[in-house]
Amino acid sequence: MTSAPPRTDETGAAWPADEFTERLRAVTAARYHDRHPFNLRMHRGELTPAEVRRWIAARFHYQRHIPVKDALILAGLDGPGERRTWLRRIRDHDGTADGGEGGIERWLRLGEAAGLTREELWDTSRVPPGVRFAVEAYVTFCRQRPAPEAVAASLTELSAPDLMRTRIAAFERHYPWIDPAGLAYFRTRVTQGARDGAEALALVLARSRTREQQERAVAALTFKCEVLWALLDAVDTAPGTGP
Predict the structure, then answer these.
(1) What is the Cα 113 distance to its own chain's centre?
(2) What's the pTM value of the predicted model, to 2 decimals?
(3) Torsions phi, psi of 13, nearest 5?
(4) How many Å apart are CA 203 and CA 107, to the nearest integer?
(5) Which of 23, 21, 28 has its CA nearest to residue 163?
(6) Which of 17, 190, 214, 226 is most enclosed, with most CB atoms within 10 A?
(7) What is the rounded CA–CA span in Å between residue 84 and residue 101?
(8) Calpha distance 127→47 (Å, rounded)
(9) Buried b / exposed e along 64-85 (16+ C-beta atoms within 10 A)
């Protein structure tokens, strides 16, 4: 992607790349869901097995829609290079064959390691309504908004590697009843998340050339943080029955 001098518009001068980047990172620093009370309890080892299983089942509903939102973003990207980059994300999650090593398969194995069946994970009737609403809101956003804004929403990946490291340590220490092999999704996302976040940030910087576009990118990332927070709200307040 080539770089051109930022333009200005009626809302003011475009932010320099370093300031724009800092504003994006400030959103995740303040709003990322690693600070949600449910995540904090998880990482302190305070969740019951039923709560862990409920979170795994609910979060799977989000995981299974990641390739859907990425396909919607893919359709709006310009040029073969951008599309190849995003197509790899779909392969990363869907895998290249049934039962392969994609992210969805790894999450299914996490569920099995925690005592859930694949049928339970695919059963959307067990997913709290608030989780379904949050996921649908995110998919709809990626369907309706320009690709650079949808990509900006994915920049929660900038904070994902640190969260995955924290989560791996917490599960190994506090939840030994879960087979460590089931943590493969988290281990893979440490490196994948860092790569994906860097690529998405480069695309957002290149395609957000005016102050208005930059502000929309910041707003998109804020929205995504709110989606993840709302998802955990729904898990945290769901009835105690179920997975």
Answers:
(1) 22
(2) 0.91
(3) -70, 145
(4) 28
(5) 28
(6) 214
(7) 19
(8) 18
(9) bbbbbbbbbbbebbeeeebeeb
Helix (H) or strand (E) holding 12: strand 12-13
- CA separation for the pair 52, 215 (Å, rounded): 37
Amino acid 191 reads T
Q: Which residue has the tokens 């943590």?
A: 183
Q: For 141-181, give the secondary structure using H, E and C.
A: HHHHCCHHHHHHHHHHHHCHHHHHHHHHHHHHHHCCCCCHH
Give the tens place of pLDDT for each residue, 21-68.
999 999 999 999 999 999 999 999 999 999 999 999 999 999 999 999
Three-state secondary structure call for residue 123: coil
What does the alpha-carbon distance between residue 148 and residue 204 come to, in Å, rounded to a whole number? Answer: 6
Task: Name residue 130's amino acid.
Answer: G
Q: With H, G, I as helix, E, B as strand and everything else as coil, classify residue 9.
A: strand
